[in-house]
Amino acid sequence: MTQAPEAILLVGGKGTRLRPLTVRTPKPMVPAAGVPFLTHQLARARAAGVEHVVMATSYLAEVFEPYFGDGSALGLHLEYVTEEEPLGTGGAIRNVAHRLHSGPDDPVLIFNGDILTGLDIPALVATHQDSGADVSLHLSRVEDPRAFGLVPTDDSGRVLAFLEKPQTPEEIVTDQINAGAYVFRRSVIDTIPTGRPVSVERETFPGLLEGGAHLQGMVDSTYWLDLGTPQAFVRGSADLVLGRAPSPAVPGRRGESLVLDGARVAADAKLSEGTVVGAGAFVGAGARVAGSTLLDGAYVAEGAVVTDSLIGVGARVGARTQVTGAVVGDGADAGADNELRHGLRLWCDAVLPDGAVRFSPDQ
């Protein structure tokens, strides 16, 4: 590689599936393993040699630049371009193209802002350049591909088709899915239409294939997780803390838990399975927190049990309350002696009285 490629980071989504986590915070800025998730992506890009990143922002766009600034703290040059109206993945890429410095044949990396992955970024760039492709895609293998777009390839890795979310056994012709990271030849970006929403998955890639372009797939089945749901986000954060997912940006030693500055944890409280306790958060006597994220200022009272859950900024979990696979939004108060489980989401600033939600033994 003669020079480090530039990158575009797509961070404009509303994160609807993550609500209430994303009511006040855009999805890429929700903390994972103690820092905004986007920090992990930027740090991995920098470690792979990327120096210039253009962020395609839209929803709550105003929060990104005050936090990351010009990127110098991460060794990067960051720029920000905000969509006035949502343009989809392809439209967002085209909308920021004027900020790129690459020549027509240079590679440009594209990342989605909600994928946690151990992708070998230099290998994807090398695959792109060695194959002479117009676009190269990171492909991952999954056990159940029905929720994803399938990408069958020939023996050389050349893409044969794009199949959106197949349901029948006959439609599932491969376990390879589009994993959300790409390398574009710079000139290809300029062929994407301007001024309207465009999906790279549904329009750009199939159109290029139909027109005879060379699309190359590289299978890399290291760690990969779409952080689109609260359960997945909590799992991804825990995997970062445990060291299962790679990142140079985890602010502390990997292990069973990560306790940030200013947090207080009672001596007999138990933290395990990649739990994060945010700055200024509190975990009371006898409480047990497993595989969960407590954001800054969260409060878990004595005897509470929090498992595989996310407790928002300044939120409170009352004494002896059990939270399993649930979300307590920013500023919410789940009173004492409640049971929150099965994906329940307590909205931001909501107040749940003591003992208001209980489950019978057979539920």
| Secondary structure tally, helices | 7
Strand-residue proportion: 25-35%
As a whole number of angstroms, the C-alpha radius of gyration is 22 Å
How many strand units?
30
Q: What does the largest sheet look like?
A: 7 strands, mixed
What coarse outline follows from CA principal-axis ratios?
elongated
Could you give the distance between the termini? 58 Å
Helix content: 10-25%
Low-confidence runs (pLDDT<50, min 5 residues)?
none
Order of strands across the main sheet: 5-4-1-6-11-8-12
The chain-level structural class is alpha/beta
Q: Return the average pLDDT rounded to an integer.
A: 91
Keywords: Transferase
Domain Mannose-1-phosphate guanyltransferase C-terminal: 255-332
Pfam families: GMPPB_C (PF25087), NTP_transferase (PF00483)
Protein name: NTP transferase domain-containing protein
Q: How would you sum up this structure, described in words?
A:
The protein has helices at residues 37-47, 64-68, 88-95, 121-131, 186-189, 200-210, 230-242; strands spanning 6-10, 31-32, 35-36, 52-57, 77-82, 107-112, 115-117, 135-141, 149-150, 163-164, 176-185, 215-219, 224-226, 257-259, 264-265, 270-272, 275-277, 282-283, 288-290, 293-294, 299-300, 305-307, 310-311, 316-317, 322-324, 327-328, 333-334, 339-340, 345-346, 351-352. The protein has 363 residues and is α/β, with parallel strands linked by helices. A seven-stranded mixed β-sheet has the order 5-4-1-6-11-8-12, with helices on both faces. A six-stranded parallel β-sheet has the order 14-17-20-23-26-29. The chain has a six-stranded parallel β-sheet with strand order 15-18-21-24-27-30, with no helix packed on it. Strand 4, helix 2 (64-68) and strand 5 form a beta-alpha-beta unit. Helix 3 crosses helix 6 (200-210). The longest helix has 13 residues, at 230-242. The protein is elongated. The protein starts with 5 loop residues before the first strand and ends in an 11-residue tail after the last strand. Keywords: Transferase. One of its GO terms (molecular function) is transferase activity. InterPro entries: GMPPB_C, Mannose-1P_guanyltransferase, NTP_transferase_dom, Nucleotide-diphossugar_trans, Trimer_LpxA-like_sf.
